[in-house]
Amino acid sequence: ILARYLLMLSFNNCLDVAHHLPYLVHVVCFLVCTGSVSMRASTHGLVINIIHSLCTCTQPQFSEETHRVLRLSLDEFSLPKFYLLFGISKVKSAAVTAFRSSYRHAGDRWLGHYSPMDRERLALTSLEVITDALL
Fold it and tell me: Phi then psi for 106, rounded to 5 degrees?
């Protein structure tokens, strides 16, 4: 739930992404390769929103070269290669998947409901590639 809040707040730069960038990258590095497919899609969406916010924010002012690198990074993180690294290569829409619940209600208690995509094992090298790209 907290990852989804970050995802929503990172949209339209409501988090002041530039000011909190080290913390957000730290959170992303902790969340990569963990949880259900909706959690992994939320993490990917957070990265996309962070980069998009940096591309569109007015403070701080970035050089044209920095804007070019940010736009290239936005394109790169939208490639199928990064969908695979985040463990969401089999989803049709990462944005829709991010807000899909991985739990179902049974009476008065919540039962974990995991799809085969949720059980997908991800390599630790995925974290390394994503971290290098974020740096």
Answer: -135, 100
In a domain, 123, yes or no: no
Tens-place pLDDT, residues 81-113: 988 898 887 776 565 565 665 554 444 444 455
Q: Which DSSP helix (H) or strand (E) runs through 111?
A: strand 109-112
Cα 95 to Cα 38: distance, rounded to the nearest angstrom: 9
Q: Is residue 120 part of a domain?
A: no
- Domain of 81 in residue numbering reads as 1-100
Residues facing residue 110 across a β-bridge? 105
State the Cα–Cα distance between residues 116 and 91, nearest whole angstrom: 12
- Record the pTM: 0.80
- Quote the pLDDT of residue 111: 47
Which among 31, 25, 44 is positioned nearest to 2, based on CA atoms?
31
